[in-house]
């Protein structure tokens, strides 16, 4: 389960714009692959109350990953898109990570 901060930039001091809520689990016996269902819930700015949801494999060892958006709400209703994720920092001992995610949505 996840309920993480969604911030504007990869800096830990960046402005909070929402939260990343969802779940993920191991999806492969031979490499680090996570299957995830994650919603980016916006709580500030023009997207306040809206949500973009991701669903699919997240191959954590690949530098740049692409995942589809599904089930978007609010200002993103009836959009389709793709999230492009890149890990900026990871601490496997604590389980903390900072992942940059650019999302492209098409109306």
Provide an overview of this structure.
This protein has 107 residues and is mainly beta. It has one domain. It is built from no helices and seven strands. It has a seven-stranded antiparallel beta sheet with strand order 1-2-3-4-5-6-7, with no helix packed on it. A hairpin with an 8-residue loop joins β1 and β2 (16-26).
Structural class: mainly beta
Indicate the percent of residues in helices: under 10%
What's the helix-strand series?
A: EEEEEEE
Oligomer: single chain
The radius of gyration over CA amounts to: 14 Å
Mean pLDDT score: 91
> Given the C-alpha coordinates, what overall shape results?
globular
Q: If helices are DSSP runs of H or I spanning 4 or more residues, what is the number of helices?
A: 0
Number of strands: 7
Family: Belongs to the plant dirigent protein family.
Subunit structure: Homodimer.
Keywords: Apoplast, Secreted
Protein name: Dirigent protein
Features:
seven-stranded antiparallel beta sheet, 7 strands, 107 residues
What's the gist of this structure?
The chain is mostly beta strands and 107 residues long. The N and C termini lie far apart (30 Å). The mean pLDDT is 91.
């Amino acid at each position: 389960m996840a309920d993480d901060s969604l911030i504007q930039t990869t800096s830990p001091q960046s402005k909070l714009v929402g939260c990343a809520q969802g779940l993920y689990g191991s999806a492969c016996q031979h490499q680090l692959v996570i299957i995830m269902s994650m919603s980016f819930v916006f709580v500030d700015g023009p997207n306040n109350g809206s949500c973009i949801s991701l669903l699919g494999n997240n191959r954590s060892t690949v530098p740049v990953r692409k995942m589809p958006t599904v089930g978007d709400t609010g200002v993103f209703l009836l959009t389709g898109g793709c999230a492009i994720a890149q890990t900026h920092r990871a601490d496997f001992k604590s389980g903390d990570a900072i992942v940059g995610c650019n999302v492209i949505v098409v109306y």
